[in-house]
């Protein structure tokens, strides 16, 4: 009798990351003792993905045709535990990391996420200061979680919101989720003291770019900082085309047709957003322009995946396995040595090279796997 046939599941092909860790001999160290990569960039910012699942299906991140009902997510035992995440955070902090951002997937789907926040809030930098501990969310669960997150020690949140018009927003999240619930989450976060709140809008031409001015008008004068993000070619599944990108300069011109805006200085080294203030004191907006204005030169960010792989660029195709070190009983000194070797060999500058002739394309890691 013939064996029954089954329909193959679509799975994103990620490169096996169980690679030999690079040697750590003689990593460059800055005047302040922080690690430096091959372009003299320090390791200041760590993005930690705590879950690979999300309840939205935004086309630029987790399109439904790929991440459908049969998609196989990581089993729970593959995810880093809260204790493992906290241990790594302590080791990164000892080497100069000052900022930790929790991401996903949707991080608020991780059970008892408040406990992880509580643990991370106890971590101190090399000079004894608390970490700048933040979280990026789609806002769907924020109304019910905001106060507990603040009480656990979270400092700020960034909320992804791609449209103010409900019909447009429901189309973009592709699960028919109402925009009003996200706005309620933002209000709850403000009431809980999670601020200043940032709202990120990924802009796609012909899809939601008509919403840019409406969002700016909505958040102007509220203390919420709206940031416009150029649609990026992250991963291999979002169907990126240059024609879909709305350059930040075009969006800035649209806003300046309504309000006078003046440029602001960067608030910290390695800041991704170009900042502009309303001349009348109505707050500020930001533009994250990875496509039209690469900021690789002072990028000081690394990303830790849900299962403990360290990526050195949002557009990377391979990561470095730290989970095996944790679970094989490696000492803190051995893990620190590994991190120093990984960062010391870093030379990533994908956005600067975009558009140039390149070797055969390799599958890039998906945004939902390492966070934005």
From TrEMBL:
Pathway: Cofactor biosynthesis; molybdopterin biosynthesis. Its cofactor is [4Fe-4S] cluster. It holds the Pfam family Radical_SAM. S-adenosyl-L-methionine binds at residues 60, 105, 160, 232. [4Fe-4S] cluster 2 binds at residues 296, 299, 313. GTP binds at residues 47, 101, 136, 198, 301-303. It is an enzyme of class 4 (lyase). Coiled coil: none annotated. Its EC number is 4.1.99.22. Catalyzes the cyclization of GTP to (8S)-3',8-cyclo-7,8-dihydroguanosine 5'-triphosphate. Monomer and homodimer. Belongs to the radical SAM superfamily. MoaA family. This is GTP 3',8-cyclase. The gene is moaA.
């Amino acid at each position: 009798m013939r064996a029954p046939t089954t329909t193959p599941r679509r799975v994103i092909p990620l490169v096996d990351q169980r690679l030999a860790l690079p040697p750590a001999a003689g990593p460059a160290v800055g005047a302040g003792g922080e690690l430096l990569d091959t372009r003299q960039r320090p390791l200041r910012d760590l993005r930690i993905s705590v879950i690979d699942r999300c309840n939205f299906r935004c086309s630029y991140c987790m399109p439904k045709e790929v991440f459908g009902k049969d998609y196989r997510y990581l089993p729970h035992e593959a995810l880093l535990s809260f204790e493992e995440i906290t241990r790594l955070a302590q080791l990164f902090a000892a080497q100069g990391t000052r900022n930790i951002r929790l991401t996903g997937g949707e991080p608020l789907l991780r059970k008892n996420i408040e406990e992880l926040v509580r643990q991370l809030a106890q971590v101190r930098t090399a000079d004894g200061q608390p970490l700048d501990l933040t979280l990026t969310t789609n806002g769907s669960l924020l109304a019910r979680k905001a106060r507990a997150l603040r009480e656990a020690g979270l400092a700020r949140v960034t909320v992804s919101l791609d449209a103010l018009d409900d019909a447009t927003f429901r189309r973009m999240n592709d699960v028919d989720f109402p925009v009003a619930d996200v706005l309620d989450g933002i209000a709850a976060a403000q009431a809980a003291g999670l601020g200043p709140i940032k709202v990120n809008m990924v802009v796609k031409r012909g899809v939601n770019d008509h919403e840019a001015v409406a969002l700016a008008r909505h958040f102007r004068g509220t203390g919420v900082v709206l940031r416009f993000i150029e649609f990026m070619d992250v991963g291999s599944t979002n169907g990126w085309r240059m024609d879909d990108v709305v350059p930040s300069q075009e969006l800035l011109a649209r806003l300046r047709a309504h309000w006078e805006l003046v440029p602001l200085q960067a608030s910290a080294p390695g800041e991704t957003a170009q900042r502009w203030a309303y001349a009348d004191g109505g707050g500020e907006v930001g533009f994250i322009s990875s496509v039209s204005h690469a900021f690789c030169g002072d990028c000081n960010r690394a990303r830790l995946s849900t299962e403990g792989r360290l990526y050195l660029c949002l557009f990377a195709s391979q990561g470095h396995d730290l989970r095996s070190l944790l679970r094989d009983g490696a000492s803190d000194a051995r893990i620190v040595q590994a991190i120093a070797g990984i960062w010391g060999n870093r030379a990533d500058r994908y956005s600067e090279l975009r558009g140039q002739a390149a070797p055969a394309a390799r599958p890039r890691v998906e945004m939902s796997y390492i966070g934005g």
